[in-house]
């Protein structure tokens, strides 16, 4: 999952993986989700959109969203994240608007979308990351999906609501040395009011939420890059390797190295099925 304001080296990332819960987040990439098995609940704004096998969704950049998985059994999807450079002729639309309902149901998904996703998966397997080819397929995904959407101005979504401000602030500053006090000061509210936002809305305190976002960044880079674990840890904003290792193990019940190896083995198995 790429549940944070990511800065990835590649222009396109694509994962065929088991769906899992992801807390509210935003990022500067356009995200595409194609359900391959089971279901997924996609939250955007105050709405929760149900997705089933064959459904397709597009999440525009800088829009807060989250995932939930309620159904038992296998729940898998193909997740794609395209950096702004791949938006091409759709850049202005994507920057200034967003879908009121981001989901296209299976019966309305154009065959070109399915083909583009399949080709991008095949290219990843072949380690073919040619920019022109990736941009062409992303353009197909956008061209075949945007006409289905009822678009609204993004400024209507990017409100002055404290929840949006909170998620947006953490997304942009999680790599820095940030505290509840400094964040409250920057947002112009009391630290007590901000603390209530974290406990009441996100059901975790400030440090837990901040570390969760940092870990989201970490696991993406463990999965998608060969960068050293130390470099990933420090780049994510953790002040020490010791703190990072403790927080990582508390959440994933394994070390970062074990997680990376486990992911590689699982990915290879899923690629073969």
Automatic annotation (TrEMBL):
Transmembrane segments: none
Keyword Lipid metabolism included in the entry's annotation: no
Residue ranges occupied by any HTH araC/xylS-type domain in the UniProt entry: 164-262
Protein keywords: DNA-binding, Transcription, Transcription regulation
Superkingdom of this protein's organism: Bacteria
Pfam families: Cupin_2 (PF07883), HTH_18 (PF12833)
Stored InterPro entries: Cupin_2, Homeodomain-like_sf, HTH_AraC, HTH_AraC-typ_CS, RmlC-like_jellyroll, RmlC_Cupin_sf, Tscrpt_reg_AraC-type_HTH
Keyword Hydrolase applies: no
PANTHER family given in the database record: ARAC-FAMILY TRANSCRIPTIONAL REGULATOR, HTH-TYPE TRANSCRIPTIONAL REGULATOR EXSA
Protein name (Swiss-Prot/TrEMBL): AraC family transcriptional regulator
Species, as recorded: Blautia aquisgranensis
